[in-house]
Amino acid sequence: MAFKTTAGLAFLALAGSVKAQSVDGSKYNSPSNGPPASYFAAATTLPVAALQSAAAKASSVPSKATYPVNTDDDSPKSTIHSDWVKFNQGAALSWVADMDVDCDGIDYKCKGNGDGLPETNWGALSAYEVPWIVIPDQFLTANEDLLPGNNVAAVICNGKMYYGILGDSNGDDPEVTGEASWLMARTCFPDDDLNGAEGHAEADVTYIVFTGDDAVLPSSALNKNYITNFSTLRSMGDKLVGALASNLGLSGSSPSPSASVPSQTTLATSAATSAASTSSASGSTATCSWQGHCEGAICSTEDDCSDDLVCDSGKCSSPDEDDGDDEDDEDEEENDEDDEDDDDEDDEDDE
Hints:
Belongs to the glycosyl hydrolase 75 family. By secondary structure, this protein is α+β, with helices and mostly antiparallel strands. The protein contains 6 helices and 11 strands.
């Protein structure tokens, strides 16, 4: 109850700042002079650490939900989870990945962006002014009812949470996940000089995108190129995250930037060299190269399991486990036959 009351006070405080954060987006269309982080930062009363942990433990896998995080042949994979899509309020999809920089839209010639496009999915957004995230095109096409476009999103990175919108999709071959606009990426990791050719390689970023028409940032706060009212974005974000946290029974506050984060994997190395990682997202203590998808993790297909693991009866398991089970069954049958023979001999002795 205290959490809801505190969050409610935060919403009221934000409502009073609407005028101050109505902006002329073109004045912020600059690689080094975008909107300040405070314009789209989440309320500090929200349970960021608990939400991050909950997302790392998500296990429901919809169709077309697993993608590599880069175009390397041995790229680790990230899975979009749908555990939270049935909530009446705060319904959302979530995933954990790295963060590359997307500069499509009017800033497609940003530093390091050799293959940018002049448009984004629902306009031609400014990567310098709009905090947005990207989702694979195949997943978007398969879930247009959940994601009509410009849906409010929350990103947990570097111990903080920021709001943005679902502004673009990835249509590369192969399609990848773990992307955000110039503004979002450089706000998350301000000391790393991220750009179109240099992303954040650790899989320690949590992406949450809220589903349905009610979660779409309205045209009164967004035009074809810019967000025009950041207070609307913040108030919607805080309301949606508050509802999600309430549905999950969470409470708490933001973690410090040095706090440990779940499901962290260094993606700059190959899957083989990171095989010593320990899975915490699934609750399994097994080691594998794709955290959260080690032996014992919940799965729907073999694409949801790391390395050589297979999806057996809804769980990732070693491919030789079935053989072991068969051998155990054979041993049990032999033991049963031996017991029967012993019983027969005992009966003969009694006679």
